[in-house]
Design a protein that fits this description.
The complex is a heterodimer of chains A (about 110) and B (about 350). Chain A is mainly α. Chain A has 7 helices and no strands. Chain A is about 50% helix and about 0% strand. In chain B, the strands form 2 sheets. Chain B has a 4-stranded parallel β-sheet with strand order 2-1-3-4. Chain B has a 4-stranded parallel β-sheet with strand order 6-5-7-8, with helices on both faces. The chains are: A mainly alpha (about 110), B alpha/beta (about 350).
């Protein structure tokens, strides 16, 4: 086989009819600001942890909404809880609390 | 849906296509990839249909590729397009006929811009005057070359030497069409059927006796997408899009693909080779690829033109299996000979996609 320096990518399909949204519902129940996120990425832009790792709070929110619970919980472990993201969020999402909720949910929801 | 509703929707996708006196402009990239296609268009219109087609050597690129990759700013491309419109009027023509789908999208976008923002048109008028001293007027009719062949499809079919029928089985050839995104998706009502009811190529195929396959990913991007391909890091995305289309059409065992866009034609032709070399996978019958033809090549074959004069040896995916199915008379020994019999050199064969199986 020839290596052209690029290759076809795996198809990524999210079936929202069968996605496990239990964690999303549970977080909404305990902190409804989760629903206010518009995925602007301000949190990720200001994140210190994100400068040293590939952590992104915006991606964690995406993963939760897509039902990728394991990925969301694993990623949340990278957060240092400094809270800068809470200060910059234009929608007043309580980002730090949501990370805490994801960690708390670990025992219940981890697949 | 009730027939009245269908008729009403279809009426929104009709477009005026000029009948004669075309001002023809070539595609930049197709001159290299499939150099015989534009020549074939001119031959069909002039010699078969007896139409007046003018081609101006002063015409330049529309700079569409530069515009879509953010190298050329919008005022610049508007001025370039205005100059091309000015050249057309200077020669006494009003029916603009580009052979490139990107250009068609650019011209449509700029005409729409001028319609909704007349101040942009006035600014462009000033830029063109300062730059070249020229004045311009909009064309009275803008039609892509595939629109023109669609309009004359029945006249071409009436003069046909061959039909799109498998001579071994007597059944219509199974054809999958692919309409360029910049033809059908940016301004759907400006194309025949838009992306929702892609008729411009289907109409040609049906007029020539073939059977159009409505495969699931018919409206998916071919994978060209300027930034997907020109940025090497994104090429995996480009070939993935093509792969998705090939996988969608493969179960129907199509005899060939017909496209109306230079980029789509190129990528669906070349990526079959690349996928073969990357994954050892082929999508046609008997380990062959699926030939990818331009609409002019299909019309030319039907009219009995010599495939090598139309430049069909330039296709990476071999077209000879299709020629044999159609029963086209051709000389395999002349495939890589020039017009005076000189040897053009034979390219290397792909390792996985079979040729002449």
């Amino acid at each position: 086989m020839i290596d052209f320096g690029f290759a076809p990518m795996e198809v990524s399909v999210h079936n929202m009819d069968t996605a496990d949204l239990s964690l999303a519902h549970w977080i909404n129940l305990h902190d409804e600001t989760f629903n206010h996120c518009i995925a602007c990425g301000s949190c990720a832009a200001t994140c210190t942890a994100g400068q040293f790792t590939n952590f992104s709070f915006r991606e964690v929110c995406h993963a939760i909404r897509r039902g990728e619970i394991k990925s969301a919980i694993d990623e949340s472990e990278k957060c240092m809880l400094c809270g800068k993201c809470t200060l910059v969020c234009p929608r007043n999402v309580n980002t730090r609390n949501i990370i805490m909720l994801i960690r708390k949910a670990n025992l219940t929801f981890r697949p | 849906m009730k027939p009245e509703g269908k008729k009403r929707i279809w009426s929104e996708y009709q477009k005026d296509i000029a009948d004669d006196k075309f001002y023809f402009v070539r595609s930049c990239i197709r001159q290299t990839f499939f150099p015989g296609s534009d020549t074939t268009f001119l031959k069909i219109l002039r010699e078969v249909l007896g139409k007046d087609v003018y081609e101006n050597p002063d015409h330049t690129t529309c700079t569409g590729i530069g515009y879509h990759t953010e190298v050329v700013p919008f005022p610049t491309i508007q001025t370039v397009v205005a100059r091309n419109f000015a050249l057309m009027r200077e020669k006494g023509y009003v029916n603009y006929t580009p052979s490139c789908v990107t250009s068609f999208g650019i011209y449509t976008e700029i005409l729409e811009t001028w319609h909704h923002f007349p101040e942009e048109k006035e600014k462009t008028r000033g830029y063109l005057k300062k730059a070249t001293g020229r004045e311009f007027e909009e064309p009275e009719n803008l039609a892509h070359t595939s629109d023109v062949l669609y309009k004359f499809r029945n006249e071409i079919a009436a003069k046909a030497k061959y039909k799109l029928i498998n001579k071994h089985t007597g059944k219509p050839l199974k054809v999958v069409d692919h309409i360029g995104c910049h033809y059908a998706k940016m301004f759907p009502s400006k194309g025949v059927g838009g992306a929702e009811y892609p008729q411009v190529l289907a109409g040609l195929v049906e007029a020539f006796g073939g059977e159009v396959i409505d495969y699931p990913e018919r409206r998916h991007c071919c994978g060209f997408g300027f930034r997907q391909y020109f940025v090497q890091a994104n090429r995996g995305y480009s070939i993935s899009a093509s792969k998705k289309k090939f996988e969608s059409m493969e179960p129907f065992q199509p005899d060939f693909i017909i496209t109306n866009c230079p980029g789509c034609n190129y990528f669906m032709d070349r990526w079959q080779y690349a996928l073969g070399e990357m994954e050892g996978k082929t999508y046609g019958q008997n380990g062959e690829g699926i030939p990818v033809l331009t609409y002019e090549e299909v019309a030319g074959l039907v009219l009995g033109f010599d495939p090598w004069e139309m430049g069909m040896q330039m296709h990476q995916t071999d077209v000879e299996p299709l020629l044999r199915k159609m029963g086209v008379e051709y000389d395999p020994d002349k495939k890589y000979k020039g017009p005076n019999g000189e040897d053009l050199g034979k390219p290397m064969s792909p390792r996985f996609v079979k040729e002449n199986a």
